[in-house]
User: Fold Mycothiol S-conjugate amidase from Gordonia amarae NBRC 15530.
Amino acid sequence: MAVHAHPDDESSKGAATTAKYAAEGHEVLIVTLTGGERGDILNPAMDRPGIKENITQVRQEEMAKAAAALGVQHTWLGYVDSGLPEGDPLPPLPEGSFATIPLEESGEALVKVVREFRPHVMITYDEHGGYPHPDHIRCHEVSMLAYDRSGDPESFPDAGEPWTVSKLYYTHGFLRARMVAFSDEFEKHGQESPFKEWLARWDARGGDVMGRVTTQITCDDYFAARDEALRAHATQIDPNGVFFAVPAEWQRRLWPTEEYELARTRVQTSIPETDLFAGIETP
Ligand SMILES: [Zn+2]
Assistant:
């Protein structure tokens, strides 16, 4: 079970991993916590009449296409996008939006899904949300709550039969080392790297989460499915943007994996891992 804040996050973070496990016969469920109603239209071609007015429905249709491309199951938790607050001071979050819902309430809703689907493994974001959006931080918080308490019969007795999840991972897609590998390849081919400014800003700020990675999943056979899922989110992803700048052959040769951090486990395993299910006994 992979828990994500908005429709499109499942396609930009760990998508090929979910497609691979689904193709190998695992049951894979994406849970999207909010409808993504407050996302900007990031693809100029989709910034046209009829889109913004119907954004809820448009994003539901995009999400259905993305799930089909990945071959995974999908469910909505049904909360409203909190939006990315901008300005100084930051404006308050919109009333009733996901990040304003008491954690016990949204947590119980996720516990209910966990107890129905009964996953062995959960995937979520790290404590920084991977990206400082209030819904991403909240995604981390509800996921931790669900991992900690789904198996406890005293917790949320009205939310179904207890189920204990074996492992919980953070997805780490935004890796400096990966960007450097691609950037160098552009330069080797005498081309301007689209990551130059990004890397300069990164170097000024410092730090890479690569040191936290415990688990690398080889999933390059599923990069095409990932790209198809990304393109399904037509309002969010510019097909001419940086997501698609790196040729497929370079990606397969230079970085055929997706990266995870084993944040919690109730089973024995040894690090580094190459399988999210390592240590879990299956009948
Ligand atoms: Zn998001």
Q: What stands out?
A: The mean pLDDT is 94. Residues 218 and 257 are 4 Å apart (CA to CA).
